[in-house]
Write a structure and sequence with these properties.
Elements: E1 2-3, E2 13-16, E3 21-25, H1 31-43, E4 48-55, E5 73-79, E6 92-96, E7 111-114, E8 130-133, E9 154-157, E10 170-176, E11 195-201, E12 213-217, H2 220-236, H3 244-248, E13 252-257
Parallel strand pairs: 3-4, 4-5, 5-6, 6-7, 7-8, 8-9, 9-10, 10-11
Antiparallel strand pairs: 1-2, 2-3, 11-13, 12-13
Length: 269
C-alpha cells in the first residue's frame, strides 16, 4: 500500500503497513527532500528502508539521531554523494555500488557497508562504529580517527588505499586486506599518527610510512583483532571467493605510533 509519511506532503514513499518497511524512489528528490523523508519515516516507526535510483544526494543518514535511540537499516541502490553517514548514530547503511568522499565523517556509532569502492577522507574524525568497503578507498582515509570513551571505531578495506592513510590518527583500527594481491603503493602512511593501529596484509617499505610510525609483526592480541575483523568482513561480502583461513595465510604487519606526542618539541607546554 502506498501512503504518505507524516509531514511529507510532496515526497512519497511506498510503505508496507504493519511491516515497518518502506521504499523510496530518489530519482526526483533533492538532498534535503530525501533526508527530510528519511527523518519522517524514522519518526513514524519505519525500521527498514530501500532507496532506489540514488544519484549524488549527500548526507544520507546524517540527520537520523533520536533520543529514543531508534534504529534504521537503509539500503542504497546507486551512488550516494559526499558525507554519506556523517555523524551516523546507531543506524546501518548498505550501499549497492560505490560511494563518494567523506563517508562516515565524524561517525559516532552504527555500520556502513559499501559493495564497491569509496572516495577520499573516509572515516574522517570517526569516533565509533564500523565501516566495511569491499574494494579500494581514496586519499586520507581515517584522517584524525579517534576513540571516544568506550568506543573504538574500525574500518576494514578489502583492497588498498591512496596516500596519507591514517594521517593524524588518534585511535581506532584500520585494516587493509589487499585482496587480489594488490600491493600497497600509498605513501605518507600514518603521518602525524599518535594513536590507534593500522593492520596491512602484505608489506610496505619504510619510505612509505611517516616518521612517526613503527612497523612490527602481529602479536597474538593483534591476530585475534584481525581474525575477528576478517570474519565480519566476509560475512558482509559473501560473494567473495575467500575464507578467513585463506586471508590469514598471508603475512600481516602492524603500523603503530612511535609516540603519543610526536610533535612534543613544538609545544609551548
Amino acid at each position: 500500500m502506498e501512503q504518505q509519511a507524516a509531514g511529507c506532503e510532496s515526497r512519497r514513499a511506498r510503505i508496507e503497513e504493519g511491516a515497518g518497511r518502506a521504499e523510496i524512489d530518489a530519482s526526483s528528490l533533492a538532498t534535503r527532500e530525501l533526508n527530510d523523508l528519511l527523518l519522517d519515516l524514522m519518526n513514524s516507526g519505519v525500521t527498514e528502508v530501500k532507496i532506489k535510483n540514488v544519484c549524488g544526494q549527500r548526507y544520507i543518514g546524517t540527520r537520523l539521531y533520536s533520543p529514543e535511540k531508534r534504529r534504521m537499516e537503509i539500503e542504497i541502490f546507486g551512488t550516494p554523494g559526499n558525507d554519506l553517514g556523517a555523524f551516523l548514530s546507531s543506524h546501518k547503511l548498505r550501499v549497492h555500488g560505490n560511494a563518494q568522499d567523506g563517508l562516515g565523517n565524524t561517525m559516532d556509532d552504527g555500520e556502513i557497508v559499501v559493495e564497491g569502492r569509496a572516495g577520499d577522507v573516509l572515516g574522517m574524525s570517526m569516533r565509533g562504529g564500523k565501516i566495511f568497503v569491499r574494494d579500494n578507498v581514496g586519499y586520507r582515509t581515517a584522517l584524525h580517527m579517534k576513540e571516544y570513551e568506550d568506543k573504538r571505531p574500525m574500518v576494514v578495506i578489502g583492497g588498498t588505499s591512496q596516500d596519507f592513510l591514517g594521517e593524524y590518527m588518534a585511535g581506532g583500527i584500520v585494516i587493509l586486506l589487499g585482496l587480489g594481491e594488490i600491493p600497497h603503493r600509498g605513501n605518507f602512511i600514518g603521518t602525524g599518527m599518535h594513536g590507534g593501529a593500522i593492520y596491512l596484509r602484505g608489506t610496505v617499505e619504510d619510505t612509505q610510512v611517516g616518521k612517526e610510525v613503527t612497523i612490527s609483526p602481529l602479536d597474538e592480541a593483534d591476530r585475534q583483532i584481525v581474525e575477528k575483523a576478517v570474519a565480519e568482513f566476509l560475512e558482509r561480502f559473501a560473494e567473495l571467493d575467500y575464507t578467513k583461513e585463506k586471508i590469514m595465510e598471508k603475512e600481516f604487519i602492524r603500523l603503530s605510533p612511535a609516540s603519543k606526542r610526536p610533535y612534543e618539541k613544538l609545544y609551548a607546554y
